[in-house]
Amino acid sequence: MHRYKELKVWQEAVELAVDIYQITKKFPPDELYGLTSQLRRAGVSVSSNIAEGAGRGTHGDFKHFLDISNGSACEIETQLMIANKLKYINDTDYNELLIRIELIRNMIFKLQHSLKS
């Protein structure tokens, strides 16, 4: 078992989820059950899967949940691109979030690699 709360990647993913919630508050009300909901679920999924994987008994389980977490990060990138094209999110916020997601994805890959050793 890993102490997920001590993992920088988990901490960064939690902050990303909080920021996604803040940004999606500005989305049109008719997106509440569409893009807003999708982004929020994917945002929460990144840190949640890191935590769940860390709580499992094997490195293999942890790596599996890190894969899911990475997939959720990719999902967020796609959804943010759509939100940006629809002008729900400005270019500055969009680009800053993409940089943070790339950082998180790199951290996930490094953590996965460390589990292989």
SSE layout and pairing:
Blueprint: H1 8-24, H2 35-54, H3 59-85, H4 91-116
The CATH class name reads Mainly Alpha
Sheet/helix structural class: mainly alpha
What's the number of helices? 4
Q: Tell me the series of helices and strands, N- to C-terminal.
A: HHHH
Tell me briefly what this model is.
The protein is mostly helical.
Task: Give the tags.
mainly alpha; de novo design (two linked rop proteins); elongated; 117 residues
How would you sum up this structure, described in words?
- With 117 residues, this protein is mostly helical.
- The chain has a single domain (4-116), classed as de novo design (two linked rop proteins) (Up-down Bundle), CATH 1.20.1440.60.
- The chain is built from four helices and no strands.
- It has helices at residues 8-24, 35-54, 59-85, 91-116.
- α1 (8-24) packs antiparallel against α2, α2 packs antiparallel against α3 and α3 packs antiparallel against α4 (91-116).
- The mean pLDDT is 95.
